[in-house]
Amino acid sequence: ESFDDDSGQAVTGKMVAALRSLGFDGVFDTDFAADLTIMEEAAELMNRIQNGGRLPMLTSCCPGWINFFEHEFADLLDVPSSCKSPQQMFGAIAKSYYAKKMNIDPKNMVVVSVMPCLAKKYEAARAEMHSDVDIVISTREVAKMIKEAGIHFNSLQDEDFDNFMGESSGAGVIFGVTGGVMEAALRTAYEWITSETLDNVDFNLVRGLDGIREATIQIKDMEVKAAIASGLGNARTLLTKIRNGEADYQIIEIMACPGGCIDGGGQPYMHGHYEILDRRANALYEEDRNKAIRKSHENPSIIKLYEEFLDKPNSPIAHELLHTHYHCKECD
Ligand code: SF4
């Protein structure tokens, strides 16, 4: 959209080429870290369900809603997942495992995120994130940089991400649309709980752009009650239900922006054109459908990362690098 192309087109390969032309030494895929988030989040959810932990568990990859929650619902600090967001998990792995593998001193690395989101700038600056990510630029900002550098974006040939953190599943791709984190988590949780292959990975029940959606997912003889909210007014409605003991969900996904990150504050302006949101969402679902791997736990780079470094989801080292905690913002 920033380059006067139709909305709803995946231009991932051109973006990689443009970032290399701008001079970045390596260009990696945040969706790789979205897969990693699912590994940690699905393990945490199973642990809470099987061991009588705090339910519902709320997804934690949206810093816009986490900030809102820390101000307005600090009596519920134990409900969000302790997982860092994909952005922060990426930075933590880049400066530990990847740095070691490539023999780079992490002090000499500058990790730059390109995000749909302005709240990601605030998230990267949180003290408990330990400078995982150094600089965050928005979609609009990177488009401006590309134009200023005189790169003719639409003529670029597609390029692939660098290895090793450049490989992602379709589950990682759909994080960008409301319901996507939930769907990605369900694909993995289903197979882990049942030890059976999930043939139809499309959880259409959790899709759509309505502000609040509910779904009951049957996982063998277990019913998982899920709710999805996008937009902070809708988040407030769900959080008030939890506070009042009226919510019997196991998992809730919340995204601060209506429709999710496809409508993020750092994206090209759409001025209320909701058909553009639809096109952006459809582009993500199409990319998911076209991926050879559509479940996070089947991403070969993720499997290797656990084999060589993290051991297993929620291991002590995974907790040290990939998990966080929250504060009451009105209590200081
Ligand atoms: Fe950022 Fe909005 Fe996405 Fe939340 S939903 S991560 S605030 S773009």
Itemize the secondary structure elements and their pairings:
Layout: H1 12-22, H2 30-50, E1 57-58, H3 63-72, H4 86-101, E2 112-115, H5 119-125, E3 135-138, H6 139-148, H7 170-173, H8 180-194, E4 212-219, E5 222-230, H9 232-243, E6 251-255, H10 274-290, H11 300-310, H12 316-322
Parallel strand pairs: 1-6, 2-3, 5-6
Antiparallel strand pairs: 4-5
The structure holds iron/sulfur cluster.
Write a concise keyword list for the protein shown above.
globular; single chain; binds iron/sulfur cluster; 332 residues; alpha/beta; 6 strands; 12 helices
> Into which percent range does the helicity of residues fall?
40-55%
N-to-C SSE string, H for helix and E for strand:
HHEHHEHEHHHEEHEHHH
Indicate the structural class. Answer: alpha/beta
Oligomeric form of this entry? single chain
Bound molecules: iron/sulfur cluster
Mean pLDDT: 95
Note poorly predicted spans.
none
What is the tally of beta strands?
Answer: 6
Q: What would you report as the Rg, rounded to the nearest angstrom?
A: 19 Å
Largest sheet: 4 strands, mixed
N-to-C terminal Cα separation, in Å?
42 Å
What characteristic shape results from the CA principal axes?
globular
Proportion of beta-strand residues: 5-15%
Question: Number of DSSP helices?
Answer: 12
Strand order of the largest sheet: 1-6-5-4
Structure description:
By secondary structure, the protein is an alpha/beta fold. Helix content is 42%, strand content 10%. Strands 1-6-5-4 form a 4-stranded mixed β-sheet. A two-stranded parallel ribbon has the order 2-3. Helix 5 links the parallel strand 2 and strand 3. Helix 2 crosses helix 8. The structure holds iron/sulfur cluster.
